[in-house]
Amino acid sequence: MQYSLRKKVLVTGGAGFVGSRLCERLLQEGHEVLCVDNFFTGSRDNIRDLVPNPLFEVVRHDITQPLYVEADEIYNLACPASPVHYQFDPVQTTKVCVHGAINMLGLAKRTGARILQASTSEVYGDPEVHPQKEDYWGRVNPVGPRACYDEAKRCAETLFFDYRRQHTMPIKVARIFNTYGPRMQPRDGRVVSNFVVQALQGQPITIYGSGDQTRSFCYVDDMVQGLMDLMKTDDDFTGPINLGNPQEVSVLDLARQIIRQTGSNSPLVHEDPPEDDPRQRRPDISLARDELGWQPTVPLEAGLERTISWFRELRARGLA
Ligand code: NAD
Ligand code: UDP
Ligand code: UDP
Fold it and tell me: Which residue, judged by its Cα, is nearest atom 27 of ligand 1?
């Protein structure tokens, strides 16, 4: 890449599931990448192949603390994403989202960097509007066990828009819907990783509640492409913008599909549903289609195939 086009890109949460894939793609495009991570849910394994690249640098740092580095672009992904992990230390989750956003926005303000926030479909809570469009304000329980994540991500969005209003900064807010693929942690607690690992181990597949709740799953490469496309938009485009795959599936059907694709004999067992579990979720992605020319390209079956291969390899190494 021409030196003048090369950017210094800061990726917080860069050792995580989505972040590590994003770092890899940015390096492929010829950019310099600074990965900042405290390794709470991320791992060195995720970025092992990137470390030898002279354009890649990693810093162990908790973004609730100030950080003084130089950057042209910032992708703010640091935050545990699985309910099991974000509910482990809920106060820290709120701090990562809120204090972390303030610090990264402060950094963007000082350096003039563009900054993109990895927000979430959880800002819609348990939605009464289906599919969800960006102008829907959501239905979130502010005092429930998911609030540390949902409300903190909502507050982070507020901070992004207030920094823009007060300081005219180039911000981008992506509302990410359920994303899956290689590098999910086997004990992460999310539905795709749980079901695939259970199916490969021949263990019962744990359906929380009836299993007729729905989600829409986006393959990680599609998501990373969407985030990079969003970063490239003009300064006057801020979002919030939904990124996700509109192919909706019930949890029960997902379990059946994973059993089929793994050839597993695992039985299905029903367990109590988690509190405030959203009943349905599907993105309306018309804005992403119109503004970014983006839409997912990997169907669920193909994405699951790659994810299952990843977990088979982990199992072969005794890691799942
Ligand atoms: P992940 O847990 O794999 O990655 C999060 C990364 O952030 C990890 O590497 C973790 O160690 C790091 N981190 C956590 N706290 C930190 C701190 N205080 N300072 C520095 N680093 C810290 O999760 P993911 O699935 O890759 O999600 C990435 C981002 O996308 C998150 O912000 C998440 O909220 C958002 N998101 C993800 C999904 C999804 O389905 N994967 C859906 C909606 C939103
Ligand atoms: N900050 C940071 N890195 C920077 C600039 C700022 O971590 O390069 C932090 C700083 O600690 C501050 C926060 O970002 O608390 C918000 O910065 P801002 O300039 O908005 O606020 P102020 O410094 O006026 O409190
Ligand atoms: N789920 C399930 N069994 C599991 C893990 C999750 O039935 O072993 C359900 C969960 O109750 C939710 C859906 O799958 O309805 C998605 O859960 P996940 O934690 O992956 O994501 P989120 O709820 O944050 O969308």
Answer: 81
